[in-house]
Amino acid sequence: MACAGAAAGVLLTxxxxxxxxxIPFSGGILLGVSLFSLLPELAADIGWGPGLALCALxxxxxxxxxRFIYPVCPTCSHDHDHTGCATELHGFAAPLISATALHSFLxxxxxxxxxxxxxxxxxxxxxxxxxxxxxxxxxALGALMLAALGSRRGALGWSVAAEAVxxxxxGLALAIAPVVGVRWMEYPLGVAGGFFLYLGLHAxxxxxxxxxxxxxxxxxxxxxxxxxxxQRAVHGFLH
Length: 239
Hints:
This protein is mainly α. Helix content is about 85%, strand content about 0%. It contains nine helices and no strands.
């Protein structure tokens, strides 16, 4: 999904222009999954106190990385313009690839953590939420990489490489699960809930700054409603 989005971002001007509008919607999806799926199930398994503490830990970790290392969601936060350069985002390609690779690693980890440590509901709702989130992320990534590199082939190739790190995160989580046991996978799943909260709020906040509260909140609210509907539909189907 992310690679298809990146191709659209590289090739289609209209897709790039609409990606910003969809990003707070995808942020709302992550918020909804964290609030209506991850937290309640985690609380049922290990209690509200430890569950909220793990989410807070994940939120703080991503905040520190975003603040002091690289932006963890550069495709929804960067609004850079080097008007004097031959390429619009000259020098931004390496940080963008690094940050996107980190973001992708976390996405892959979260999917496999949901499969190993979550219940039947989470094993479906978390991958679906990330799937929806990946589409606008990929479009924005492709557009930014094209602006940074000035080459469609290079932009698409590096976008695919950065998004492919999702498989590395997923594979590592799957490899760890049999060693630490399914019970212990609930703890990184709680941290993943904090990741979702941070990424979701970050996406909504950036759109709020650009276009104002009504547009950002309406799009995010739609994403939250969709996430809640997915969770209820999956729960009803499985139970």
